[in-house]
Amino acid sequence: MITTVVLVRHGETAWNVEGRIQGHLDISLNPLGLAQAAAVGKRLAGERFDAIYSSDLQRAYSTALPAAGDAARIVREPRLRERHLGVLQGLNGEEALERHPGAWSAFKSRDPEAALEGGESLGEFARRTVDFVEEARLRHAGGRALIVTHGGLLDAAYRHATGMPLSKPRDFPIYNASINVLSHDGRAWRVDAWGDVSHLPRSLDDT
Length: 207
Description:
Elements: E1 3-9, H1 14-18, H2 31-44, E2 51-55, H3 58-68, E3 74-77, H4 93-99, H5 101-109, H6 122-139, E4 144-149, H7 151-162, E5 179-184, E6 189-196
Parallel strand pairs: 1-4, 2-3, 2-4
Antiparallel strand pairs: 1-5, 5-6
């Protein structure tokens, strides 16, 4: 009995382009991000999902809407929010290093238990992610669930599925509006597809 979880990262925002830390701040999609969301909807239109979950932040919810077709199908879930990055939220890397060097060092260290001022440690965040993914697996055993969320959650879910330590530098891609597929056969997780952006326009000229 195979359970499939399809994970989609939200489309592009202006802050993604600027390299600005979003965390729990509620930033909307930019025009390309909206086009990416529409492309995700077209790509997933023929697929069956027993449930559709989205972070309650608008950049994820706006990405989920075209795939769902009907807003009533989407369960908006605060546990699917990006990691809360405390005092770093709203800053770019240069600003974060200058204003909050301790928090920036904790963030860059990938130490799971390093406290981040005003936010979640990496370990706390990863446990939140894993708890939800495992809950979805059990709730929809033998079925298919769509989860539209954020880059940090994709990172944590991939590491959980593959056994990759949180402390190890990431060697896999996380793209805006990418489609990523995990499955569970009742014994273990498997990565069936990752970082698929073949459905996406490269620019607004391609839409």
